[in-house]
Amino acid sequence: MAPGINIAHAQLTYTNLLDYFEPRPIQNDEQYWSTQEVIDTLLSKPVLSEDEEAYLHLLSILLETYDDEQQTIPELRGIELVRTLIQEAGLKQRDLLPIFKHESIVSDVLSGHRKLTVAHIDALATFFELPHRLFFEPS
């Protein structure tokens, strides 16, 4: 960060912002938190200029890209994944009624007596915001 520039209290041009904190692809947590600090400072301003909004958008993309790269895809698949997600989210079987329609179906699926249908997989992927492929049983 460039000394002498206070981005919290001044309207800065895009070039000034680049001089203050040069955006680069984030490679580690230290860079991540430095970028987040600049974002937080900009977000604390009551009004942002167009240049500040564009710069903020760029920094947000860098954070999102790093987050996406750090996100590990779980080894769990199918019913095992559903059971784990329910447990981690502190859900009850009845919380899945909008997906399965009947508590007996929820129970049968979770106990392994019934397979997930394509409709169930689609609804689970939407509900848990995960890729559909994770809900298919491994072959």
Automatic annotation (TrEMBL):
GO terms for molecular function: core promoter sequence-specific DNA binding. GO terms for biological process: regulation of DNA-templated transcription. This is Transcriptional regulator. It comes from Candidatus Entotheonella gemina.
